[in-house]
Amino acid sequence: MKIHEYQARILFKKYGIPVPEGFVCHSVDEVKQKVSDDDKLRVIKAQVHVGGRGKAGGVKLANTKAETIEKAEQILGMDIKGLTVDKILVADAVDIEKEFYVGLINDRNSKSVTLMVSAEGGVEIEEVAKVSPEKIIKMPIDPTMGLMDWQARKIALKLFSDPKEVRQAAAILVKLYQLYVDTDASLAEINPLVLTPDKRVLAIDGKMNFDDNALYRQPEILAMREVSDDEKKEIEANAKGLSYIKLDGNIGCMVNGAGLAMATMDMIKLYGGEPANFLDIGGSSNPEKVVEAMNILLSDKNVEAVMINIFGGITRCDDVARGLVVALDKIKTDIPIVIRLSGTNAKEGLEIIRETGLPTVETMSEAAKTAIELSKK
Amino acid sequence: MKIHEYQARILFKKYGIPVPEGFVCHSVDEVKQKVSDDDKLRVIKAQVHVGGRGKAGGVKLANTKAETIEKAEQILGMDIKGLTVDKILVADAVDIEKEFYVGLINDRNSKSVTLMVSAEGGVEIEEVAKVSPEKIIKMPIDPTMGLMDWQARKIALKLFSDPKEVRQAAAILVKLYQLYVDTDASLAEINPLVLTPDKRVLAIDGKMNFDDNALYRQPEILAMREVSDDEKKEIEANAKGLSYIKLDGNIGCMVNGAGLAMATMDMIKLYGGEPANFLDIGGSSNPEKVVEAMNILLSDKNVEAVMINIFGGITRCDDVARGLVVALDKIKTDIPIVIRLSGTNAKEGLEIIRETGLPTVETMSEAAKTAIELSKK
Amino acid sequence: MSILINKDTKVIVQGITGRDGAFHASKMKAYGTNIVGGISPGKGGMEVEGVPVFNTVEDAVKATGANASVIFVPAPFAGDAILEASFAGVGLVVCITEGVPVQDMIKVTPVLKQNNTKLIGANCPGLITVDECLIGILPGMIFKKGNVGLISRSGTLTYEVVNMLTESGLGQTTCVGIGGDSVSGLYFIDLLEMYENDPETKAVVLIGEIGGDAEEQAARFIKEKMTKPVVAFIAGQSAPPGKRMGHAGAIISSGSGTAAEKIKAFNEAGVPVAKEPSEIPGLVKGKLGM
Amino acid sequence: MSILINKDTKVIVQGITGRDGAFHASKMKAYGTNIVGGISPGKGGMEVEGVPVFNTVEDAVKATGANASVIFVPAPFAGDAILEASFAGVGLVVCITEGVPVQDMIKVTPVLKQNNTKLIGANCPGLITVDECLIGILPGMIFKKGNVGLISRSGTLTYEVVNMLTESGLGQTTCVGIGGDSVSGLYFIDLLEMYENDPETKAVVLIGEIGGDAEEQAARFIKEKMTKPVVAFIAGQSAPPGKRMGHAGAIISSGSGTAAEKIKAFNEAGVPVAKEPSEIPGLVKGKLGM
Asked: What DSSP element (H or E) covers B210?
């Protein structure tokens, strides 16, 4: 789960990580109301769940209240990579002496939360990682001890030299780690962390993602969720035990198992088609789940054919087939469907389905080819 | 630092440890106002920082509102071991099927927080420890992992057998440990933890002490501090870098170092006197500190003679002597004082003091004997 | 021979009184797995599917000498179940549970190391040494004794491939589903090393997917350390970046973890990568000169 | 010979730029202690009292080969300073700081074990091997080279006793102030064992106080394991229960930790207990047949 910069700022403040003054606005009227009359340099930033908003014109500076309103008008409603900007952050701009990068991630290899810092702040860290990886300092954190103060100081000393700056930076690292662990985050970035000419260390931009598997114990984080329409569908599907991702193609697919579902998408692509979605219905043969899955799948108006790909393991194909028959009977659709069953009792399963007149095939590649053909009719 | 039962209940609730409904009252009027009209069994408990309130009549049951008010009248204002009861807890009495003891302490030997539970609840655990120590189950907790759920279950399984009861009890243990660590407690007891006939597990009485050294980072706990007059003096002294404990004797003593201060008290007692206090002024020769210490010491009207016992180490006795002279010059008192200096430059120090006419001696025993004699004049 | 488990492995089931735990305990027993006990706190003394139930893993290990455990408890309790098994001295823990928070897995990691516990999963189908021991939810009937080892981040895709191997006459030694989470127990390299040292295994099939760089590491390991042939397949070639493809770990983030990178790494290590699953048996046979 | 420290011990001072750190660094240097560096984050490269300052303990250890550290940082940071020294591989850490929260000491305990670090303190005056090395705030001039070892939970009371020993002609090997907190580093038993194994030490003086049962444990240890004579003193015989006598650890709680119990334990172990400090030298001489 992702949150916006303005939400990350709320969490930063709660944990004592210093950020410049600022507030979120949903309309130009709100900007007019909230911005004070005094002239000062302000930054207006689009709040969208996508990178590269700066290049897209979603971040602007303003010197006066009037200018702030003007820039807010320009940004609100703007389209950035397909997303409409419906809220902005208006914050005090600060003078910057130096910029740094600070990030925390769950690292698969060290199997730990890993702290990354770099003196190359303010730019995309992925770029730094590719061009000059030696400029990123990484430290895996032992979960039993957490980020100890001396470790935070050691890292801060790589970026700062003045004792007061070291102390500020080390405190920010420790607080960010605490926030990260407390909220089951999967990413926390301060980019840039800046040093101002008056030697304050401040978090200018913040980004946080959270572990979906841990949201059940993070009600405060969950309450921050803001979702697009596509995401809504994915979340609804999740609540029903389905895993659904909308894609741009026209071949809908419904598969049991995430790996097999990916392989199915790949297969469609391999044979020249375009998958309309990723859809994993999990392990059961419950007809209700199949109905739910089909409804979600068919709500995508681009879908022109459906490929059902099931491997029967512990759940035998004949049981799955019976479930499918019940489910497909309930769904009234003109979209052509091809069903492929494999694994335990595959023959018996296919027989049951054939009796209903639905098209069946025995291999994945055949299923993919058939679905592509059907979509062209 | 100690808190009252009603305050421990507030912390328990915050951490999700179930307690019966109840509230604190400071007057009979408040009881009249807060107690509902319905008849139910209530328990009225004196809130004093001393054990054995039950035996002293500080805990009473009542069936009706009228009876509750009557019992509250009896308890409020009562004297328990020298302390006046100025607040009571009025709580719903619950039916009890079984009583247990649960405690957490900082264990010196395992150098860890140690969980103690016993099926012998509701009685003084010290008694159980003496009579049948095998009835107390102890488990040191690894601070890096904390109290893990499976450990809490393992301990809960020693007290309970039904899965639902085990689950409730284990959850309470984990929550109590979390509360303990979060608040820098030095003692947390639930005694009794009870099982009701309808199979709820509840904390009926709670006791918590906190590490004085950690109060600087526990503002919420510090805000709960309620102190007696004697304690006020101790806390004031502490704020000035002095360590003071009032005792019942008539020989005031002022010493540098806690061990030496205890040895000084012991010496007074050994020679037939009674120390009026423990007072450790720490390591400096600062005259201001000596003045503060003397003021605190002499505010005890029982003091009839004062013994000053200083060992000069890094701080040399001649410096200490000069400080003492300045300080004692500022303090106008008729109480006789004897000064003993030892250690580095003791001779020079004693010489300086003798010049002022104050009585000096060279050994601790001599000092104690002299102070006792002076107190009898 | 085989890796990790065999007919002497004594298995306990954590969460045996739950629906999935009870169902799969009976399936595993039916396959021939030596299920010696189940765990359910407060239900010690009961029997489920003919298996004695204990209150704690410690009790079960003491009573039965169990050396492997399989976990079916719900996600919020799975991390703790792993810790309990590890501290009770169980050498191999297989966590089937899906949806375990990453921080819980991070927290168990140093404990596993300290107690010398091997973990498979979480969010995995388990593992099988064919005709000897099945731990997890794998459909036993599709496996056939033979000389191919298999490691996979996936469940049903694994079954699909195993089925193809079996139908084409390629039996298996041990097949391990390592799970689809980003932070897991044993990983490709750990298992590749075991297969390399297992005399019975002649070739290994590795089924990877998008996300992370475990496949790239595996490719390096194969190139530098392995003498036995490996054939690979990577799922998720058509997956868009930034989207989690069902498995928590199957996500292309910041442009890394793509199928293309992984395929390139395998190609550079001389590992053939199947374009679709049905190619796998042929590639294995080719490597084995069959 | 001696225990824990000698003329070859290389000492760093954590918190050397603070008032106490700088003052005592100069005092220790003056005594002859080999102070090789000081720590103050962000002040690396400076010099304090002629001692080079480093940013981290790790830097100091790398540059100087320091094997002991003394901590003068304020209480809220002392636990972290111990951790830093321990993780940097310093073998002996002496924490002078008073008022360290107990939970911080509990948190460092498993780390010390894991990293094989010996800790003295917190809230202690330090230790001295006479004429070789002084670490802490002890007044060096009262000590005299000899054959008596001394362990104490107290500061000035220790000096008092050392002064008496010295004046009565009883010099010392190593004297250790273990500190007055309830949860500390090395304790009586650890040190008694070291004295027992130190050929130069002929007798040991143990200065205990009320609170805890370390004296009782020491008494048992002496009875069972020690061949060298021990003489004891217990402070706090007149202390009331439930009151903390200055030292965080000096408190009689729930009726245990009294001086009477401790004296009884020593008597049962054949250890003479002085009624007042001035008796100690005589008791030691008696035990040594002097």
From this structure: strand B206-210
pLDDT at position D61 is 98
DSSP labels, D8-66: T-EEEEETTTSHHHHHHHHHHHHHT-EEEEEE-TT-TT-EETTEEEESSHHHHHHHH--
The predicted-structure confidence for C161-174, as pLDDT tens digits, reads as follows 999 999 999 999 99
Q: Are D144 and D211 in contact (CB under 8 A)?
A: no
**pTM, to two decimals:** 0.94
Find the catalytic residue in C10, C202, C228, C247: C247
Task: Give the pairing type, strands C126-129 and C172-177.
Answer: antiparallel
SS (H, E, C) chain A: CECCHHHHHHHHHHCCCCCCCEEEECCHHHHHHHCCCCCCCEEEEECCCCCCCCCCCCEEEECCHHHHHHHHHHHCCCEECCEECCCEEEEECCCCCEEEEEEEEEECCCCEEEEEEECCCCCCHHHHHHHCHHHEEEEEECCCCCCCHHHHHHHHHHHCCCHHHHHHHHHHHHHHHHHHHHCCEEEEEEEEEEECCCCCEEECCEEEEECHHHHHHCHHHHCCCCCCHHHHHHHHHHHCCCEEEECCCCEEEEECCHHHHHHHHHHHHHCCCCECEEEECCCCCCHHHHHHHHHHHHCCCCCCEEEEEEEECCCCHHHHHHHHHHHHHHCCCCCCEEEEEEECCHHHHHHHHHCCCCCEECCHHHHHHHHHHHHCC
Are the Cβ atoms of B150 and C111 closer than 8 angstroms? no
Site from A141, A142, A144, A181 to mutate, B interface, most B CB atoms within 10 angstroms: A144
Q: For the segment C219-260, what is each residue's pLDDT rounded down to a tens digit?
A: 999 999 999 999 999 999 999 988 888 888 888 877 788 999
**Dihedrals phi, psi of C215, to nearest 5 degrees:** -65, -40
Give chain C's length.
290
Q: Taking residues A297-302, what's their average pLDDT?
A: 90
Show residues of chain A in contact with B174, CB under 8 Å. none
How many CB atoms within 10 Å of residue D131?
Answer: 16
Q: How far apart are the C-alpha atoms of C154 and C138, rounded to whole Å?
A: 11
Residue A361 and residue A338 in contact, taking contact as beta carbons nearer than 8 Å: yes
Beta-sheet strand order (sheet of C145-152): C133-136, C126-129, C172-177, C145-152, C203-209, C230-235
Q: Is A101 a catalytic residue?
A: yes
User: pLDDT band at A209, cuts 50/70/90?
Assistant: very high
Residues of chain C with pLDDT under 50: none
Cis status, amide bond into B192, omega within 30 of 0: yes
d(CA C241, CA B150): 39
User: Which residues in chain C have Cβ-Cβ distances shorter than 8 Å to A214?
Assistant: 101-103
Residue % of chain B over a pLDDT of 70: 99
- In D153-262, DSSP assigns E strands to 172-177, 203-209, 230-235
Q: Are A18 and A240 in contact (CB under 8 A)?
A: no
| A189 annotated active-site | yes
For residues D96 and D178, give the distance between their C-alpha atoms in angstroms, rounded to a whole number.
Answer: 10
Look up the ipTM and state it: 0.93
Which among B112, B118, B176 is positioned nearest to B145, based on CA atoms? B112
- Tell me the residue type at D109: T
Question: Who contacts B359 (Cβ-Cβ below 8 Å, separation ≥6)?
Answer: B336, B337, B338, B339, B370, B374
Contacts of A among chains (3+ CB pairs under 8 A): B, C, D
Given CB atoms, is B348 within the 8 Å cutoff of chain D?
no
Hey, what are D168's tokens?
Answer: 């009565």
Token reading at A156: 């801060």
Phi (first) and psi of residue B270, to 5 degrees? -55, -35
Q: How far apart (Å, rounded) are the C-alpha atoms in residues D106 and D111?
A: 10
Separation of alpha carbons D53 and D46, rounded Å: 5
